[in-house]
Amino acid sequence: MARKSAAEPAPPSVRYGESEGGGCDHPGCGNTEAFRCLYRDRRAIDCAWVACRDHLQVVDGKAYCMRHSSIVEVLIMARRQGTELLPPDLDDRCASLVRAVANDLNDPVVERLVRWGDANTTIINDPSIRFTRADRLHHVPGHWERVWGLATKTGILLRVGIRVEESRPETVILTGGVTHLVATIPPWVQRHLAGDAVQGSQTALVERLAFQQQLLQALDEHVEKYGITFPHQIMRAPA
Questions:
Q1: Which of these three, 28, 56, 90, is where a domain ends?
Q2: Same domain, 72 and 151
Q3: Are residues 20 and 124 in the same domain?
Q4: pLDDT number for residue 109
Q5: Is residue 2 part of a domain?
Q6: DSSP helix/strand/coil, 109
Q7: What is the pLDDT of residues 5-33, one digit of tens each?
Q8: pLDDT tens-digit profile of 47-87?
Q9: What is the mean pLDDT of the chain?
Q10: What is the mean pLDDT of residues 134-157?
Q11: Number of domains in the chain
Q12: In angstroms, rounded to a whole number, what is the distance separating the alpha carbons of residues 100 and 160?
């Protein structure tokens, strides 16, 4: 008698927002079945973006618009590491901008750390995007940041960071140690601020690669000029 195969597990259920009859908000999409994004910020204000299933991103069983899905992923990652963060305001793009730029930079930054290090160094590659506020009592604006590093048993030789400050939410800052190497607005953000039309995927890719190279060149020049410092000693990076 043939054994019955075990029943396959049911696919995880997905929670969508309220169904809307006006169709998908994504430019050029003709889908008429659309749902409201489930993101709610720290002020209990809901996202008004409406999209079809193709243009929503599911995170932890809930459907969000593309922009807010990346923010929710950052919040979930922080929670898993023991830090509870309030959802940023609807129009706060700081965390999602850090995440987008850091994802583009991760492989080439790690490749450089491997090249600059040796058998006695360890690469720090923390995917977490953290929120820091230096002075909470005086309500100093904070910043979101993603960090890489090169360390030995006695300390950090090089710390590389991508950050976006609350007071300048459109500006990406590349840091080397405590030095701001570059502070610039990405081209796609410039277009958004100017109200320009969305570019094609090929143009967007060229923009992102050019922006990536701008940041990497600044990092390369910093290490070439100052080497790897710790704490009073300078070690020139290997060619």
A1: 90
A2: no
A3: no
A4: 97
A5: no
A6: helix
A7: 455 554 568 999 998 878 999 888 999 99
A8: 999 999 999 999 999 999 998 999 999 899 888 888 888 89
A9: 87
A10: 84
A11: 2
A12: 16
Claim to verify: residue 130 and residue 53 sit in the same structural domain: no
29 and 136, same domain (yes or no): no
Q: Which residues pair with 126 in a beta bridge?
A: 147
**Residue-level pLDDT at 77:** 86
Kindly state whether residues 106 and 40 are assigned to the same domain: no
- Whether residue 35 contacts residue 45, with contact meaning beta carbons closer than 8 Å, is answered with no
How many whole angstroms separate alpha carbon 64 and alpha carbon 45?
14
Tokens of 4: 């019955």
Do 163 and 86 share a domain, yes or no? no
Nearest residue to 54 via CA among 71, 21, 32: 32
Judge whether 3 lies within some domain.
no
**Which of 52, 148, 66 has its CA nearest to residue 103?**
148
Closest CA to 214 of 106, 105, 113: 105
Using alpha carbons, list the distances in angstroms from residue 137 to 31, 86, 94, 144: 49, 18, 22, 19
Lowest mean pLDDT among 124-128, 177-181, 211-215, 232-236: 232-236
Rounded-to-integer distance, Cα 92 and Cα 166, Å: 8
Rounded Cα–Cα distance for residues 43 and 92 (Å): 12
